[in-house]
Amino acid sequence: MTRFSRNLVILALSCGISASSAQDSVSVLIVYYSAHGHTQAMAEAVAKGARTIDDVTVKLLPVAEATSQHVLAADAIILGSPVYNANIAPEIQQFINGWPFEGTPLRDKIGAAFVTAGGISAGEELVQMNLLHSMLIFGMIVVGGPDWQQPFGASAIVAEAPFNTEQQVGEVDRRFLAKGEALGRRVAELARRLKQAR
Question: 103, 42, 94, 44: which is closest to 72 by C-alpha?
């Protein structure tokens, strides 16, 4: 080891950075569209869960600020959309349509989804599956939540009783936020394990 390399390692250790942390750090990208604040609240919960995992960097972006370069740089991509007549919000679909395809640059990245819907059985699972299907087209590895109660990711009901009572605009029931956190945590854990195995 040269004197310069030794000094660099000492400097990194004194700053609390391991020599391999930059290489081992996992990047989780969370992109969402939110018209009324509900999907943003879920996105923030997903990010909170992902940030509980060591060596994970989380980038949380509204879809208007996200680019294909963000997608290429990420190890895991989590998309969030409100349900629009049992379909993905057009803004999220347009974002997906702009992802690079030639040469399969997104192959083996982890992908996951979360949604917000007005009512129970009002299209949330359809939209989750549509998001995951799109990811599969790009060769991504899609994952759901940590148990059978959220197998397709995470979702929130925001306009049907009892989940709409005493809520402000953009507020989401804490039970759904917990599901968002669990999804973020699982995606970050799996992305870290996959990167360490490579």
Answer: 103
Domain of 85 in residue numbering reads as 26-197
Contact 82, 33 (CB under 8 A): yes
Q: Is 35 within the bounds of a domain?
A: yes
Residue 6 has pLDDT above 60, yes or no: no
Q: Is residue 17, in this structure, part of any structural domain at all?
A: no
Q: What is the pLDDT of residues 21-71, one digit of tens each?
A: 445 789 999 999 999 999 999 999 999 999 999 999 999 999 999 999 999
The answer to whether residue 158 is domain-embedded is yes
Looking at residue 187, which CATH number applies to its domain? 3.40.50.360
More confident residue, 11 or 98: 98
4 inside domain: no
Cα–Cα distance for residue pair 46/50, rounded to 1 Å = 6
Question: DSSP string of the chain?
Answer: --HHHHHHHHHHHHTT--TTHHHH-EEEEEEE--SSSHHHHHHHHHHHHHTTSTTEEEEEEEGGG--HHHHHH-SEEEEEEEEETTEE-HHHHHHHHTS--TT-TTTT-EEEEEEEESSTTSSHHHHHHHHHHHHHHTT-EE---SSTTSTTSEEEE-SSTTTTTT--TT---HHHHHHHHHHHHHHHHHHHHHHHH-
